[in-house]
Amino acid sequence: MENTIFSSIAKNFKAVFLDSYGVVKNYNGLIEGVQRSIDFLRSEGIAIRILTNDASRSQEQQYDNFRRLGLQGIEVEEIITSGMLARQFLKHKILNGKIAYLGTEDSAHYILQSGRQSVPVREVNLDDMEAIAGFAFLDDEGFDWNVDINKTINLINRKNMPVIVANSDKVYPVSKNDVSVATGGIAKLVENILNRKFIHFGKPDSQMFNFAFDDLNRSGHFEKTDILMVGDTLATDILGGNKFGIKTMLVLSGNTRPELVDILIGVTGIIPDYIGESIVK
Amino acid sequence: MENTIFSSIAKNFKAVFLDSYGVVKNYNGLIEGVQRSIDFLRSEGIAIRILTNDASRSQEQQYDNFRRLGLQGIEVEEIITSGMLARQFLKHKILNGKIAYLGTEDSAHYILQSGRQSVPVREVNLDDMEAIAGFAFLDDEGFDWNVDINKTINLINRKNMPVIVANSDKVYPVSKNDVSVATGGIAKLVENILNRKFIHFGKPDSQMFNFAFDDLNRSGHFEKTDILMVGDTLATDILGGNKFGIKTMLVLSGNTRPELVDILIGVTGIIPDYIGESIVK
Amino acid sequence: MENTIFSSIAKNFKAVFLDSYGVVKNYNGLIEGVQRSIDFLRSEGIAIRILTNDASRSQEQQYDNFRRLGLQGIEVEEIITSGMLARQFLKHKILNGKIAYLGTEDSAHYILQSGRQSVPVREVNLDDMEAIAGFAFLDDEGFDWNVDINKTINLINRKNMPVIVANSDKVYPVSKNDVSVATGGIAKLVENILNRKFIHFGKPDSQMFNFAFDDLNRSGHFEKTDILMVGDTLATDILGGNKFGIKTMLVLSGNTRPELVDILIGVTGIIPDYIGESIVK
Amino acid sequence: MENTIFSSIAKNFKAVFLDSYGVVKNYNGLIEGVQRSIDFLRSEGIAIRILTNDASRSQEQQYDNFRRLGLQGIEVEEIITSGMLARQFLKHKILNGKIAYLGTEDSAHYILQSGRQSVPVREVNLDDMEAIAGFAFLDDEGFDWNVDINKTINLINRKNMPVIVANSDKVYPVSKNDVSVATGGIAKLVENILNRKFIHFGKPDSQMFNFAFDDLNRSGHFEKTDILMVGDTLATDILGGNKFGIKTMLVLSGNTRPELVDILIGVTGIIPDYIGESIVK
Question: Helices (DSSP H) in D180-233: which residue ranges?
């Protein structure tokens, strides 16, 4: 573990995996100077993948968002979201029937697509669930928590079927100090009430890293030793990267507070190979 | 453990502790025939206490509710709610300042009374919390979950202070099949997000049983062996009673389904001394 | 919360509850100067109770140990151990049959006494358990972990019966830096494997505080506001005292490291009313 | 979910992943008739991989064991153990220093090989750990639990380093009714005491399935829809297969008791696509 400058580390790798929130952007917009870092990686011929647990927006929407914020040089297909893994699962494992969901129509559109019908929880008739074949936690927005969380609990309790969580993050930051409950947090509440474990997608799960690794290897030859994972969160980015067997760098531009780094590493036992201020410095 | 008739068991004790929901009443009103059971206990001179984790209503309100449903013979002071323990804690441990809360105004009125000011979460100014000295989860109603749960998380995260949960039940039944998230479930979500443990009141905690035991002994002399706890829930009524060292009877008129009793006892290891259909039969 | 001198705080109370390990003694023997503190309390007429989760030794043995270490002025009946609560439970709830246990013969002798037969796990015949009516985790010593932990798991899995944990502490300190797994840690392993929750005795459970409170009130009149709990551990002494509704003081002479106090209080949300170096200063 | 015959299901797939314990063999030796099933798969040209969480023995040792039991037709390289994933991790992530371990010398030999020195916990000097760069839980045998588990706790507590668990199973069966604590159970005890999460290898983690999937694709072209996972345990085999997006079949020849299948599926929400008695019938 060394405190260090991103560029001097990154140049030893053939590819970098970047978390999006806390590394490339935050609640304010782009992290200042991040364009320079992306340009540097491109000029060095280092491959880039963005690995994000944000399942509320498709690749294209995340791409558009980068553009709107003014970031150039990240392509649509370089963005990998946990929603893509959720979609893949649903495609392989649930062949018939409707999927009920908690989330926005938008999130349902891109994750549950593939010719299949989906239905928001509020429209489910608990006394006629014959057609419901699965359930998906997609987003923390788009529904009335007071009503629809209870309905979700009763729906899942009444009918045994696969239940997936498209984004396992429990919270997301909304300002310097404050957070908001994310999809994974709501799913956790329901898991806790029903004493069940749903199927979660997203970092730190190896599947996300493997998806990116396979994708990378379709455009060249990469070994695990060629890749650096950069993230702002020990429990997702660093744990996942460590477990997948690639080098990891923790940056302090997101939700890990600089003054707590040492304590958090000690307490969690999740040890990044490198620590830096941001991908800019 | 024996399958048996309530009256033939109860008559061997000098006092019975009855859970309210699932024993005396349910989502439909009074459990049919329960008046006869109360009358029987009275005629035998057996003392009664109602031990309920419902913290949303005061003793008086619970009493009025029994009356409205048509039940006679339970006195105000025989009703013991987890809210009373929460109130006692606040009185002893938080001497100055306001208490912020999630719940109805009604619940705040009776738990947070005692001359102290209380403030619902929605009215708290996160940038001016000087005066806030504690936080209480009081009820699952009376606030906007989408907004106020997030605000609660940020409030508790910003200011370190005692946080109490007046009712630690995670759900309550709303019909034969369906449940609703209770105060304890919402508190659990927040505990999970913040990785904290709040101070919970209510069964199975010994404090509730001790409160009832002390109260009983102000009107006579009772040993633990003189008391029978009757409840419909293994994890609260029976576990709590067992741990307190009194005999326990599980009744199947509430949320323990008859066909699952044996499995649930095996899985949890919580073993009632007696099992019966209800306090009526 | 104020940083402060023990004696200047204690003199405002009519009684103090003292944790034993980390407050009165440690792995080295008596904490230096502790005799003066006990003498001070006596001279002020302040009642004393020792509340210890050590269930491996009886009141008398703990008393003898204080004497051997050179401490005067603590009487046998002022020592309250979690083992006493376990014994009380067994007496009320298990009327017939043998109790199987993990622990030393000594611990079995004093907890399981009361005319009843007990049997160490190693002597249990798994194919003839008719006579076994309960199980007790008593001590981390006195048995072969490799063999007897597995046997315990199979024993409890085969026969459904009350299982108690006489000391719920997961570890105890054996030197400045090192700890040893305590009874509660071994019980936790078995609970985890069997996905069960046993009946635990000891702080932070209210029962221990209530036992001490009742005992105190047999020799005078004490309100909760008259009592100060002093301990070295947030999760047992301070949480338990807070919940019971009495004032609490954290001392740094035991297993809470001074440099981590603020962080630990922030992380756990367990807030002592006072913090001091030890009961000496 | 359909109750069905293994061969009639398997013939619709191009490859089957078989769990070892409970599917191919058990505490008695080979499951009767299993040779016919392997022969059937071979005759149909269906590819086979054995996916086992047993990390105590190498591929070669597991192969030899199958042979000794009389099973023909499984090749060394078709056996995939969680220990192989642990070894891969150590190779990529721990480049220098010794690895301390709990387990047999044998397990250390094959997992920690690769030119690196390893040291059993009993030989570690806690006051001179400079050279220790990682820790591995390898096996539940080969050490004195009373002594070495405590030493492990203090070792990991004193030095922050990557800690891996080569087999995350908590127990393994030793007879029809009885189990023994496995490596994952011991690791869980230590995680619980230290409040940490180590890096676990083995099913249900996707990494194991991905390893097998990649391996399979080196000898042909396989889609996820071409593969059937067969196992006796919902929480590892079926959950892992489901999450990886392949079809799953639960067999009742191992540790899932036939009379509890429906209840366990309902309680866990882990739903196999097929259920059969064994791979024989």
Answer: 183-194, 206-217
